[in-house]
Structure formats: C-alpha cells, structure tokens
Amino acid sequence: xxxxxxxxxxxxxxxxxxxxxxxxxxxxxxxxxxxxxxxxxxxxxxxxxxxxxxxxxxxxxxxxxxxxxxxxxxxxxxxxxxxxxxxxxxxxxxxxxxxxxxxxxxxxxxxxxxxxxxxxxxxxxxxxxxxxxxxxxxxxxxxxxxxxxxxxxxxxxxxxxxxxxxx
Length: 167
Known about the structure:
Largest sheet: 3 strands, antiparallel
Helix content: 40-55%
Number of strands: 5
Shape: elongated
CATH superfamily of the largest domain: Elongation factor Ts, dimerisation domain
Oligomer: single chain
Strand content: 15-25%
C-alpha cells in the first residue's frame, strides 16, 4: 500500500516518531492513523521496558517557580548520556515535570515507593501515575516513555521536591 506524505506528516505530528517509522507503521495499519498511533505507543512501552535497567547517571536538575513566587518545585531527571541531557526535548520534559510537581504536589514518584498500608490514591499521590496537566488524556509516565522511544535511552525521575510559602 502506498502511503501519502500528508498521512506520514500527520502521524509524525501526533507521535513525534521518525519518518521511516511512521511510514512503516502506516503501511502495517493500512493507512489508519489512529491505529498507527496506538501501535507506536505500544512499541514505545516495549522499548522503554527494554531500557529500564540501564544506568542513568547523567541528566539535569530543573526548577520551576510559579508566577507570584509562592510555589516552586525542583526535580532531578536522569538519562544515560550528557548528549541527551543537553537536548531541547529533554530540557522541555524536565520543565514540564517540574511544573507538574508544582501544580499537583505528588508525594511519591512511583507506586512502588508507597509504604505498606499507607492510605494514598495512586493516581494523585504518585507522580508517574498522575494525569498530565497539559493533556489529561496522558499520564506523566507516557511523556517519559515517548521520549525514551524517541532518543533511545533510559530516562528516570530520581528526586522531586515541592515548596509552598507557609507550608
């Protein structure tokens, strides 16, 4: 099946995947963009799972201070190489996660960190399970997985801190 360049462009805009990958997926799904997006997402999770055990010693610390200066957040976002840590996509991800921490005040990064018997709501108290404030159809983990599949390196949120005046 021949795939139009408009279809490839539309899929790239939705997914951020490479041109060849978009073309191959569109051929596989007979040009159905929605199926292609789902398939790319599934493959992204598979890629991320393969990379999950890799060491992440590089990265950056990102700070976000909300307008008015009453709320701020800091995160440590790690990756495998300093090359990836310097990319615009990585810096944007770090900024968006820091903004998420400031807005949603998560207590834990992952559900595995929650102590046994603690009464928490995983979807609100764990950063990686929270709905993304800019797109409630996604969770924070989806943002990270999307970048992992794009750059080919493991990415991990190591630490978070949130500050609010008077608390």
